[in-house]
Design a protein that fits this description.
- The structure is a single chain.
- The protein is built from eight helices and 13 strands.
- With about 270 residues, the protein is of the alpha/beta class.
- The chain folds into two domains: about 40-125 and about 235-270, D-Maltodextrin-Binding Protein, domain 2 (3-Layer(aba) Sandwich), CATH 3.40.190; about 125-230, D-Maltodextrin-Binding Protein, domain 2 (3-Layer(aba) Sandwich), CATH 3.40.190.
- It is globular and about 60 Å long.
- The structure holds glutamine.
- Glutamine binds near residues 51, 127 and 163.
Amino acid sequence: MKKFTKVLAILMVITMTACLFASCGANTGKEKSDSITITEGKLVMATNASFPPYEFVGDDGEFAGIDVEIAGLIAEKLGLELEIVDTEFGSIIGGVQGGKYDIGMAGMTVTEERKKSVNFSDSYATGVQAIIVPEGSDITSFDDFFNEDGSVKDIKIGVQQDTTGDIYVSDTVENGGVGADHVIQYKTGNDAVQALVAGKVNAVIIDNEPAKSYVASNEGLTILDAVYTEEHYAIAVNLDNAALLEAINNALAELTQEGKIAEVVGKYISD
Ligand code: GLN
């Protein structure tokens, strides 16, 4: 009996150690052990298709944009069929973390905070935050959000909820923002821009390329200088799915080498 207990204890230790390495019980986001995606043969990408030129719904009702095309090329390299799910930006990371989507691709900036929830691929693009204001606005730079004494003016800034623009500008003045009281969050970048057109906010802070697209498609708006530092866009992958992350990074490296990434970017961004 004593011997039996000892054997049992050893067995338990072995199982626990094996579990530690194989992350037993963790959600790997995989259905089958031989598939690197949730559903075999498919690559499910969560995005927020209100972020031109990275992702938007074209006139033909189809998803289009830099991320959509790059994801298509990656899927092709991996022999997978791309499926796109359009969702709120703020639910993409949770969905990837929870094994609902294989990847999150939405002009998504790599941040230390997000890295706690998902892994990021190598970066494939960069962006900075830009300020959009109505033409002729009194606001001509970030400094114009403030009074002479350093307090924030009686203004409202529109942002897309949960984006880096939202996170930075909602932060305290000491930390480089204007404080959440001066920020109105919208579900999409387009909603924020429409609020600006309607005069409900004084400015919108959003990534520079979408800013250019919105200014081109809405009369009477203009872009001020970029604010905040350069951000790196990457693809979010489940923390436990190292195989998919590696496959994506390899595909991205090949696509870069073949000039395909530059080709896609050049199709949507001319300067
Ligand atoms: N780059 C920004 C971020 O990651 C905005 C992305 C977006 O709105 N789709 O937060």
